[in-house]
Write a structure and sequence with these properties.
Blueprint lengths: L11 E4 L9 E4 L3 E6 L8 E6 L7 E6 L5 E11 L4 E8 L4 E11 L2 E9 L1 E10 L2 E11 L5 E6 L9 E6 L2 E4 L6
Antiparallel strand pairs: 1-14, 2-5, 3-4, 4-13, 5-12, 6-11, 6-13, 7-8, 7-12, 8-9, 10-11
Length: 180
């Protein structure tokens, strides 16, 4: 599932099963999705999305339900592939508007996360080992009654960009014992 969670730091507690990104709906183009990729927890629940169409955008999406209007926290795991920048987006299909587009600019396998468009906040990126990063971010202006989608791109929301990115989507809670 989509990770709606309190924002904190280590340790991570994961539950449930990882999402099967190959089963997500194809939004644009014909992205190649490779499964059974090593994930950050030692399993093989990660998926690589390949946008290899220089003339168009390729992505996969899942309909998501938010419990209320406003700002919502999300967490995703990502690992560099061949894309120089990767996007993950919250899209309001009813309003035909990107609520937030998370951009991961990769350099040496390390992401710099920003909000490329829409409105939101990047709370941070955490290295979780084996070149995996947990990205904590928020999307603003969510309308809960609308049809919302979470999009994953091999590269970006711009036609002409190509590349691969590996994602792992699972429910997590990050615990912070610093105040105890």
């Amino acid at each position: 599932g989509v990770c709606l969670m309190p924002l904190a730091t280590y340790p991570l507690i994961a539950w449930g099963s990882a999402d099967d990104l190959s089963a997500y709906t194809t939004g644009s183009g014909t992205p190649t999705v490779t499964g059974s990729v090593a994930d950050p927890f030692g399993g093989t629940g990660a998926y690589t999305i390949d946008d290899n169409d220089a003339g168009g955008v390729e992505n996969k999406y899942k309909a998501v339900t938010f419990p209320a209007n406003g700002t919502h926290q999300l967490a995703i795991f990502a690992k560099a592939g061949t894309a120089t920048t990767s996007h993950v987006a919250v899209f309001d299909n009813t309003a035909t508007a990107f609520r937030a587009v998370l951009a991961l600019a990769w350099s040496g396998g390390v992401p710099t996360a920003t909000i490329a468009s829409g409105s939101g906040t990047v709370h941070g990126t955490i290295s979780v080992g084996s070149s995996w990063y947990l990205i904590l971010w928020a999307a603003d202006n969510i309308v809960a009654a609308n049809t919302n989608r979470l999009y994953f791109y091999g590269a970006t929301t711009t036609a002409g960009t190509t590349g691969t990115t590996t994602y792992y989507v699972r429910n997590v809670v990050a615990l912070d014992y610093m105040d105890e």
